[in-house]
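Quick note —
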Amino acid sequence: MHRIAQRRIFRSRYPAVFCMIFLLLAGFSPADRAANRIPGAASDEHQATDPRSAERSKTTCDDAIPAGTILPVVLPSLSSKSLKKGDQIRGKLAQDVRLQGGKRIRGGTNVFGSVVDIGSGGAGSGATLTIKFDRLVQRGESTTIRTHLRAMATTVAIEQAQIPTSGPGESDVYDWLTTVQVGGDVVYGKEGPVERGTRILGESTYDGVFVRTLASADGRCRGSVYGNDWPQALWVFSADACGLYGFPNLEIRHVGRTEPLGEIVLESKRGPVKIRGGSGVLLRVDRCE
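Predicted structure written out below.
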């Protein structure tokens, strides 16, 4: 009888307990609830509008491809006669691009660009081709970049830079033979030093070289910029390579370093602008966006 009475008393207390809990919860205002949030746990709305979120995104982007990084790109065939405005251009990195902290962008990574404009040359008999490269896709992830042109060489010039200056002797190893880069630097075999006179500029690998860039003698191209003094992937180009190599009828009207930013304007003196597939360019990253 005593136990039955206890159970009745316990059950009778349930409504009172629930009422007390409800009144306590209802007493908290929105301001009170905001004050009791976990410190540092921002709302979705705050995260979307917080300028620090954009800053962190930019920092991550710049860490991935810092400004001043050189991208050596193998070009597809390009012709102002067959291309039209808006056409996509897809090149590929000629070698791995090393970044600070042991990171790298793998050789063969796609570098995308587009045709901005096609026009006639100044004398009326030539043509102009305006292009820009602004996207890099690696492992399925796309990174928007802004680049300008540093140097461009024909397929023939690039092939010659990979042929040893002398034939192998009876006891010579082909990969150890000397080659000359586009622009004049000397490479003393695969995995050997890259030199200019008695000055060692960097090192060679089996798919390109890594050297610190130098300013060109005419001042058109700069050395290291944006504090990025890391050895750059220059493929078959010299440390101070700048401008055109092997294009007698072509001129660079604009490299894209100034307004209009990122736009490379090539002009032929006679006929359409033609660039054979396998030609190469050095693009310098001005900004990762």
